[in-house]
Specification:
Elements: H1 2-20, E1 38-42, E2 54-59, E3 63-65, H2 68-71, E4 73-75, E5 83-87, E6 90-94, E7 104-108, E8 113-115, E9 126-130, E10 138-146, E11 157-162, H3 167-171, E12 178-181, E13 187-193, E14 198-203, E15 218-220, E16 228-239, E17 245-257, E18 261-265, E19 275-279, E20 285-290, E21 299-302, E22 311-315, E23 321-326, H4 329-332, E24 336-346, E25 352-362, E26 378-380, E27 385-386, E28 392-396, E29 400-403, E30 408-414, E31 417-420, E32 424-427, E33 434-438, E34 446-451, E35 456-458, E36 467-473, E37 480-487, E38 493-498, E39 504-509, E40 515-520, E41 523-531, E42 553-555, E43 560-562, E44 566-573
Parallel strand pairs: 10-18, 27-36, 37-44
Antiparallel strand pairs: 1-2, 2-6, 3-8, 4-7, 5-6, 7-9, 10-13, 11-12, 11-14, 14-15, 16-17, 19-20, 20-23, 21-24, 22-23, 24-25, 26-28, 28-33, 29-35, 30-31, 30-34, 32-33, 34-36, 37-40, 38-39, 38-41, 41-42, 41-43
Length: 596
């Protein structure tokens, strides 16, 4: 009887405790971090004389597929890719293309196969088979970096062709023989290659046809590659904890060479040139927009107006944005300006051919016309604390017809008195919308820019209001400087100072005794150089024809931390001797393909 009451009391206690803890719920066990495990492959991986259209792979748990297009690489490439589907614990591959005789095929799944619940990936699983009597096992590997800044680029195809006299022609016409794809570190591998000699290329395959089309990014390796394999002893490190090595175990295996190929990715200076649109936001001007840089201005033939000597052209540095300012009111009072425009347009082969279009520049008047504005807005780059190395920039909203320098005073403040200075005033371009006031300022001194009213008159007879701006030049003690010396010296080197965002702050050609970069604000900086092969002072990209590589870029792998009022001297010893993947400081590295 006593046992019966004790048992009943225990049951009630358990029931009450479970009711009182409904909110807590089951705590569960350790999180599953194990990837799916292969239980069966039909046919087996590495099969010979494969003559079917289907492959089935069974796992120990339910699976799903993630980012097939980004992860899966099939080699040789398939014009019509196979259907790859996951159902429960099974993965099905159904080929749509005809398989070639005596060929080794490989399907590299990357990280596409994950378990259904925790999304643990089965990393770098490769299924291979041969349609002939033997399976090819050689491979080559390496790294692909962006040529201009040595950043890795993911998702780029790397492929091979048999060594012939005109591989570049094949690259532009026929799919790769075998392919790999770069990962987030820019690393690639091309598996299951035959013995032989090959040329290797990289391709941003926008057209999805596995060969180069003009305008697509690429890389090309200059030397012939011959894949080989040799026995090798590898060291495996077993760690006792995160910092302590337990043992180093040696294991035998094979080393597939070459395994250190370096490819530099670039975009040719090929961009389709075509007319985008015309825009006329105000009646007094219209703008023409083109898709790419132009070497010459379009030829405009008016159809419903006469503008000879009655307009001003304003263009940007690349001549792809051109504004025409209309000086005659009988022209700009027209709502629609019709004209014939002849310009250069690229065809399918990227050749520039003359093209003539009839276009209209239409001004859509608002329901309520704004009141006339006769004030010319003026902007300057002046700040209360101004840098000693800068010139004063004055910008106007429309072209000038007259400037009265007698109404523009640059004064130095001495005690409480302003003393007028002699300065130089230069227009930046022919449109007379930007002017530079040039004077050699002295550190820590105070100045004033005084502009009287009506100092500037625009082509539409607008005049400026009076403007007085006081400013002081920064002390030299607020700046830092870097003297950069390269060893060995090379007169073709251009040195660049970069900020922590990898942006060029300043650049100069290398000198025997070093170059001095002055007036840098305190902070962290980096050094980069490029080999200016053609001596034009700018970095030049490559060209597939005539097979010109981009100009080589090198990074100094140290950070330079500058303090105020300090000149930092640094000698860059044995530049270019480090592997390309180890040159760029880690804090500057980023996957270029992820940058928007």
């Amino acid at each position: 009887m006593k046992f019966r009451y004790t048992f009943i009391f225990s049951i009630i206690s358990v029931f009450l405790f479970s009711c009182a803890n409904k909110g807590q719920g089951p705590t569960g066990g350790k999180k599953d971090e194990t990837p799916p495990r292969i239980m069966q492959e039909q046919p087996p991986n590495g099969s010979l004389r494969f003559d079917k259209k289907n492959i089935r792979i069974r796992f120990d748990e339910n699976i799903t597929l993630e980012k097939l297009n980004d992860n899966v690489i099939i080699s040789p490439p398939q014009v019509r890719p196979p259907d790859i589907n996951a159902y429960g614990k099974n993965l099905f591959i159904d080929f749509n293309d005809t398989l070639h005789a005596n060929t080794t095929y490989s399907i590299d799944f990357g990280n596409a196969i994950v378990d259904l619940n925790e999304k643990n990936p089965l990393k770098n699983y490769v299924f291979a088979f041969a349609t002939g009597d033997q399976i090819d096992t050689l491979k080559v590997s390496g790294n692909l970096l962006n040529a201009s800044d040595l950043n890795p680029i993911s998702g780029i195809l790397v492929g091979i062709y048999n060594d012939t006299q005109d591989n570049d022609s094949l690259f532009m016409k026929k799919p790769f023989l075998r392919i790999g794809r770069t990962n987030e570190n820019g690393h690639f591998a091309i598996n299951n290659m035959k013995e032989g000699n090959y040329k290797i290329y990289a391709l941003k395959d926008v057209s999805n046809d596995f060969h180069y089309n003009p305008g697509e990014g690429l890389a090309m390796y200059d030397s012939i590659i011959t894949p080989t394999v040799e026995p090798h002893v590898f060291n495996d490190t077993i760690w006792r904890d995160s910092v302590t090595i337990d043992t180093i175990v040696q294991r035998s295996g094979f080393l597939y060479l070459p395994d250190n190929l370096e490819l530099l990715f670039f975009n040719e200076n090929l961009k389709r040139q075509f007319f985008l649109k015309s825009e006329r936001k105000t009646p007094t001007n219209f703008t023409l927009f083109f898709n790419a840089k132009a070497d010459s201005l379009p030829v405009i033939k008016p159809l419903n107006f006469d503008w000879e000597n009655k307009y001003i052209v304003q263009k940007n540095n690349t001549s792809d944005t051109i504004t025409y300012w209309l000086k005659d009111s009988t022209i700009w009072q027209k709502d629609t300006l019709k004209m014939q425009m002849t310009y250069f347009k690229t065809d399918s082969t990227f050749s520039l051919l003359p093209q003539t279009d009839t276009i209209s520049a239409v001004y859509r008047r608002p329901r309520r016309e704004p009141k006339p504005n006769y004030v010319l807005n003026v902007k300057t780059n002046l700040e209360p604390n101004f840098d000693v190395y800068k010139s004063i920039i004055i910008r106007f909203e429309e072209p000038l017809q007259n400037i009265d320098l007698g109404k523009i005073k640059l004064n130095e403040k001495i005690d409480t008195v302003f003393r007028a200075l002699k300065y130089e005033c230069q227009p930046v371009d022919s449109s007379k919308m930007i002017f530079n006031i040039i004077y050699k300022f002295e550190p820590e001194k105070s100045y004033q820019l005084a502009i009287d009213s009506a100092a500037f008159i625009s082509i539409y007879n607008k005049t400026n209001k009076k403007l007085n701006t006081n400013f002081k030049i920064r002390s030299l003690e607020e700046y830092s400087s870097i003297k950069a010396i390269i060893n060995p010296f090379d007169s073709t080197v251009i040195l660049q100072v970069l900020d922590k965002k990898d942006v060029v702050i300043a650049q100069k050609r290398a000198e025997v005794n070093g170059v001095l970069f002055e007036y840098l604000k305190p902070g962290d900086y980096y050094l980069r150089m490029f080999i200016d092969q053609n001596g034009n002072g700018i970095w030049d990209t490559g060209n597939l024809s005539p097979r010109r590589q981009p100009e080589r870029v090198f990074y100094y792998n140290k950070k330079l931390s500058l303090m105020a009022n300090w000149e930092f001297e640094e000698t860059w010893e044995k530049w270019g001797s480090e592997p390309i993947t180890e040159q760029k400081p880690k804090e500057l590295q980023k996957d270029v393909s992820k940058i928007k």
